[in-house]
């Protein structure tokens, strides 16, 4: 089983095949905020700097079509299909879970 390299705030994590970016981040202290894990709160929104994802369901109220087109994703609903670089959208001074 393969893994993709995902860089989050200059930290590289390994995301297993069929694993979301958020789950891998939690497993490896990658620094992405956690909320509902269901695509409805937007706490885990990231900006894709490079790479591609396979995306699950996300509420349009937290990730609009325009945001999606601009490269934003919800880490809880996105699985990498290439190596990636992403930047979390939440402030650094918030508490991570």
Report on the structure:
The structure is a single chain. With 97 residues, the chain is mainly beta. Helix content is 12%, strand content 33%. It has two helices and seven strands.
Q: Please report the distance between the alpha carbons of the first and last residues.
A: 27 Å
Order of helices and strands: EEHEEHEEE
Which strands sit side by side, in order, in the main sheet?
2-1-7-3-5
Shape: globular
Rg value: 12 Å
Structure class: mainly beta
Mean pLDDT: 90
Beta content comes to 25-35%
Helix content: 10-25%
Tell me the total number of β-strands.
7
Return residue spans where pLDDT drops below 50 for at least 5 consecutive residues. Answer: none
The major sheet is characterized as: 5 strands, mixed
Number of helices: 2
Task: Record keyword descriptors for this entry.
5-stranded mixed β-sheet
In short:
This protein has 97 residues and is mainly beta. The chain is built from 2 helices and 7 strands, in the order ββαββαβββ. Helices cover 12% and strands 33% of the residues.
């Amino acid at each position: 089983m393969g893994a993709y390299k995902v860089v989050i705030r200059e930290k590289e994590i390994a995301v297993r095949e069929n694993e979301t970016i958020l789950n891998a981040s939690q497993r490896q202290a990658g620094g992405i905020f956690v909320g509902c894990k269901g695509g409805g709160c937007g706490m885990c929104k990231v900006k894709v700097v490079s790479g591609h994802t396979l995306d699950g369901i996300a509420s349009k109220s937290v990730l609009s079509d325009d945001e999606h087109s601009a490269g934003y994703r919800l880490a809880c609903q996105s699985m990498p299909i290439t190596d990636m670089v992403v930047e979390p959208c939440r402030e650094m001074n918030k508490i991570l879970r």
